Amino acid sequence: MHKKLCLLPALALALLCACSSGEKKTPPTRPTDFVSSERQFTTPTSGDIIAIFDTSLGEVRAVLYPDAAPMAVYNFVGLARSGYYDNTTIWRSEYGFAVQGGDATGTGTGGSTIWSNNPYPLETDAGLKHYAGALCAAFAAGGDATGGNSQFYFVTALPDSVSSSDLQAELTANGYTDAQVAAYAAVGGLPYLDNTDTVFGQVYAGMEVVDAMACVDTVKDDDGNDTFRPTGEAAITINHVTITTYTAEADNGLDTVG
What we know:
Shape: globular
Helix content: 10-25%
Distance between the termini: 22 Å
Radius of gyration: 17 Å
Strand content: 15-25%
Order of helices and strands: HEEHEEEEEHHEHEEE
Largest sheet: 9 strands, antiparallel
Number of strands: 11
Number of helices: 5
């Protein structure tokens, strides 16, 4: 994952300012009654591939999209089944933006792939966006490591992050559909990362755990700047990632999220 300007410079600037305003880290109240035809807001169907994250803060469940992002999904699934993610940490926690993990070194500078550690290319799909709760492949930029590896992030943008009518008008002007603009307006997200990073899944249960990850205490540098690295006392561990298929019976009683 990387913050960079793309087709929406004004939108990116507005969202970055909102995410770095120093506001208190309070878990947001997310909409529970939002209805959308967008793929990421529909309940998984029987047989869909899902990932179950067992973490030190609780369980997170995400549906994966191998048809839209096959390399990202196959790499993630292969690494998860090999135990690569076992006992790794969330090394980045940025309130209102994202939480990131998937680096076995815990530094954010490492990573692996199932293809002899060779990176894989960007995969974008017009129907998948960086809405809150999106599971995304983090991409290195520049040098010999350009591309995706084992690192991933969950979008933790706040529900009101795309509430401005000006931002929504900019999305419309850049070709977003009415349904996509409505989804961003309702749940928030990071539209300036669309088409620059790969969305390969969406949280459908346990978003409150993801939000808790974004609210932990983080280390400040000598100048008082936030490094976005959880403190030792607030360390977040991914105990294990289970890959399985969705069944309504198995998920009965779980709280779902849009």
